[in-house]
Amino acid sequence: MERVGFIGLGIMGKPMAHHLIKAGYPLTVLSSSKAADELSLAGATLVQHPKELTASSDVIITMLPDSPEVEEIMFGANGVFEGMTEGKLFIDMSTISPGSSTMIFQRLAEKNVEALDAPVSGGQVGAESASLSIMVGGNTAAFSRALPLFQAMGKNIVLIGAAGSGQITKACNQMIVGMTIQAVAEAFALAKEAGVDLEKMREVLLGGFAQSKILDLHGKRMLEGNFKPGFKVRLHKKDLDIATKTAQDLGVVVKGTEQVAEQMAKAVAVGNGELDHSSLFLLLEK
Amino acid sequence: MERVGFIGLGIMGKPMAHHLIKAGYPLTVLSSSKAADELSLAGATLVQHPKELTASSDVIITMLPDSPEVEEIMFGANGVFEGMTEGKLFIDMSTISPGSSTMIFQRLAEKNVEALDAPVSGGQVGAESASLSIMVGGNTAAFSRALPLFQAMGKNIVLIGAAGSGQITKACNQMIVGMTIQAVAEAFALAKEAGVDLEKMREVLLGGFAQSKILDLHGKRMLEGNFKPGFKVRLHKKDLDIATKTAQDLGVVVKGTEQVAEQMAKAVAVGNGELDHSSLFLLLEK
Q1: What angle (nearest 5°) sits at the alpha carbon of residue A31, between those of residues A29 and A36?
Q2: What fold characterizes domain B4-162?
């Protein structure tokens, strides 16, 4: 059984780590983690530094907020990178910039160490029920090695392509989800102001070409005014910043994504950052 | 059996009129219609003017390109309006501005004549297979009276609310469809430029929160480069112009819709107006 080191025990990482313990993996976590005591009780070993964690693990998994945090854990003092030797595998399941993912992949490759970018979708519910979608970028052998670990945490697990392509796919997912939320929010705001019954409208539109998971689930949230997260605006904004930056680097014009990123920034500015991303509706409602 | 007059025998109207004949309705059409001979062979009566058509019909249905055409047929010389008397029913199945629909409803109400706005979605395929979605605005009694006719032409038939609410719902449908196309197009353009396998990406995204009928059907079109209509950019642009104008009148800010309307105008300007609306992808692809 692979020895696993897990860094990042937040809303997502904590249940993911628990699933690995349940699946029988010997797990090491950082003693400085908020959820360290809980994981320790569940059987995890506690260590002081990422380097120490790396030394006592075969596979190192990170689930952190953004690129700077992953780079700090990797390349900072007593970081993962120092402890990385041939045969170990690094898996970053955070949503970070594809450029940062590729850079980490290349730096590790210079040490003959394999790495995968494996961001997830499915949110807290998906993490808790081990039903995350996992979009993976990297080499086939590394993917095959990681697959049993992924299967302990998720369901829809796909190797998309080379290093970075997991993050690209995740960015694309967040673009589509964000713009679809904006689409439904604008339609609902217009219909509401025109006095149209939103529940009837949602029903008829779900039967046609406008159908989407967002119209179904977030349309219902908008109807009910229920904006308890779910997925926070603040985090979706971060993901869209990654997407627009990546598009810029590639010279692809994504004006719709930029428009929604602006809406999300506005939502954060007015104090809605901790609400569910479906709360973009609140910015449009009169 | 109600005697039906049908005005507007285009790509949509012709098959719809055929379905009414098949359902046994005595049908009258204008002799000036392109498809008049074909309908005549199928059993329709030909007349010269909308007024004459109105005189010999109980229910008058219009299926025309836009508000000005409907208003001209209604209020022009020898128009429908002149022939309208109590007991007759006017059904406009065109996609026009909600304001124009409401105005026609009110003018007819002054003559004690009922009217319904009943725009459809489902396109040419839906019209030919009598499986259109029909979004209806107007009074309940008029809706009940029209229901058997709608059932000859469509499947998902919903009375949304008061006069104009069918058109509002259709405008909302077109907003959501347009923005979802733009969302998928931007994601695919980014992924393509980054070297990601679009087919794999589409598959994994369909399993998650980004799922939509557009990602499924139009995503496939983008993959295959198949932009044969389907629904033409030029017509979708017209529908979004209605939506943005309506939003403006109501004081609702719909920046995402405006962005897509601009994309559609650009597509028309570069000569893509007759392509399927999924061809918005062509504007983004490098």
Answers
A1: 70
A2: Rossmann fold (3.40.50)
